[in-house]
Amino acid sequence: MNGIKLRGTGSCVPRHVVTNEDLSRRMETSDAWITSRTGIRRRHHCGDESAAELCVQAARAALSRAGVAPEEIGVCIVATVTPEDLVPSAACTLQQALGLPEDTLCFDLNAACTGFLFALHTMECLLNASPRKFGLVLGAEALSRIINWEDRSTAILFGDGAAAAVVECREGWPSIGAVYGCRGDRTLLHVAGPGSGKRSLISMEGTQVFKFAVETIPRCMDAVLTRHGLGADDVDFFVFHQANARIIDLVVRKYAIPPEKYAKNLEEFGNTSAASIPLLLAQLEAEGTIGPGSRVLLVGFGGGLTWGAAIVEFTQGGRND
Ligand code: COA
């Protein structure tokens, strides 16, 4: 199988910022509690913006950075658990808004916070069967729409945003070698769907999910490094799902990852589920921390339960077709 590389990323977050102080006026909590337990200080929540509008802006930014035209896209996948509409899918909505060709394979994918990783792996498989070499992968969420404001242990965590990556598939490029898994579980993390007749609100056993995360991330990292025949030192940058700063700190300590090789942005955005990994990728690419030739290890985990990791490279830039 031919591998994919990232050609360009882009992102869009809602204008409205909700600080910890804002939340402490709405529920019994404090900036000190939220910051010390999670590392989150602010998050962006949709006001009058829709999740679909965020997707369009993020996708346009990624296409522009990649230097790829909409008509060159063969597959478009939006990883999300909070699409604006169930039908049409967020990806079909993008097809129309961006003017993607009608034979572009467009669909949404639900793997909660691991969504972007599942989507990248799916994209690699599908681009091998596509007549066009470029694909568009998004992670996009409007989690503020499904927050349970009666539950202070989860209401403080989540933010909204969308981020996109244009990927390219070329003969001879190595696979991203994704590792992934799932274990059906309704007790640790649950959001009812429209078929249940219940309201869609997030419920989570935070302490259990925390334990799941700190066990699962190293398992994923070891598996993906082994699959690529690499050591942690061979990786240029580590991008972890941004759920809780304490989870990231534990992993970074375990692998002795130096500060210049990882980043956290949950202070500003909170946990944006499927959008979290591409939001950070887009930020890092925009500031020049990662770019042409960078080898980046991505790790996701979350509801489902789901988990996954992959090692992706950025293209060297320039079009060779
Ligand atoms: N403000 C103030 N106090 C709060 C609070 C809040 N927002 N939320 C919970 N508390 C209180 C609890 O009521 C509890 O009080 P008690 O001891 O008097 O009963 C105390 O803080 C500890 O609660 P607990 O749930 O054990 O806290 P925690 O240290 O586990 O932190 C999370 C809670 C949610 C921050 C943490 O478990 C977490 O981040 N888990 C992982 C979540 C995650 O990664 N989810 C995404 C998966 S994709």
Portion of residues within helices: 25-40%
CATH topology: Peroxisomal Thiolase, Chain A, domain 1
Q: Bound small molecules, which ones?
A: coenzyme A
CATH architecture: 3-Layer(aba) Sandwich
Tally of extended strands?
13
Query: What's the SSE pattern?
Result: EEHHEHEHEHEHEEEEHEHHHEE
Keywords:
5-stranded mixed beta sheet, globular, binds coenzyme A, alpha/beta, 321 residues, Peroxisomal Thiolase, Chain A, domain 1, 4-stranded mixed beta sheet
Please give the structural blueprint.
Elements: E1 3-12, E2 17-19, H1 20-26, H2 31-38, E3 42-44, H3 51-66, E4 73-79, H4 90-98, E5 105-109, H5 115-127, E6 134-142, H6 152-155, E7 160-170, E8 179-182, E9 189-190, E10 203-204, H7 206-228, E11 237-240, H8 245-255, H9 266-269, H10 276-286, E12 295-302, E13 306-313
Parallel strand pairs: 4-5, 4-6, 11-12
Antiparallel strand pairs: 1-7, 2-3, 6-7, 8-13, 9-10, 12-13
How does this structure look, described?
The chain has 321 residues and is of the alpha/beta class. It has one domain: Thiolase/Chalcone synthase (Peroxisomal Thiolase, Chain A, domain 1). Helix content is 33%, strand content 24%. The chain has helices spanning 20-26, 31-38, 51-66, 90-98, 115-127, 152-155, 206-228, 245-255, 266-269, 276-286, and strands at residues 3-12, 17-19, 42-44, 73-79, 105-109, 134-142, 160-170, 179-182, 189-190, 203-204, 237-240, 295-302, 306-313. The protein has a 5-stranded mixed β-sheet, sandwiched between helices. A 4-stranded mixed β-sheet has the order 8-13-12-11, with helices on both faces. Strands 2-3 form a two-stranded antiparallel sheet. Helix 3 crosses helix 4 (90-98) and helix 7 packs parallel to helix 8 (245-255). The longest helix is centred in the last third of the chain and has 23 residues, at 206-228. It is globular, with a radius of gyration of 18 Å. The two termini are 19 Å apart. The relative contact order is 0.20. The mean pLDDT is 96. Bound molecules: coenzyme A (COA). The site of coenzyme A has 19 residues, from helix 2, helix 6 and helix 7.
